[in-house]
Amino acid sequence: MKVVRVQYTTRAEFAATNQRNIAAIVEELKILNHPGIKYTAWLLPDGKTFMHFDQFENEEAHLVLQGLASFHKFADELEASDLEVEPKLELLSLVASTETYF
User: Fold this and answer.
1) In what order do the strands lie in the sheet containing 49-56?
2) Its domain of life (predicted)?
3) Are 92 and 7 in contact (CB under 8 A)?
4) How far apart are CA 29 and CA 68, in angstroms?
5) Which portions of the chain are predicted below pLDDT 70?
6) What pLDDT is recorded for position 101?
7) Which pLDDT score is estimated for 11?
8) pTM, two decimal places
């Protein structure tokens, strides 16, 4: 299993666009219905800091996400948006959970 947490802060004027881009990823993932991908994104109380918490069965599943057209659009626009705080990526290791994962 691969667990990825990414957090970054957009400019206030880009936050709504970023939310729409994330929603497009979720819609594409729902259509794909890949059993090895769990994707979530959260907006922090400041209204412009985003946290993505993604769980993948394996690296191949992660590559599926990264290959989506919606993900490319999201990544390209995010990179061009002049972020206030650059993305911080962390790879996490599961210790314990009430949930059953892959």
Assistant:
1) 37-43, 49-56, 2-9, 85-92
2) Bacteria
3) no
4) 9
5) none
6) 83
7) 98
8) 0.94
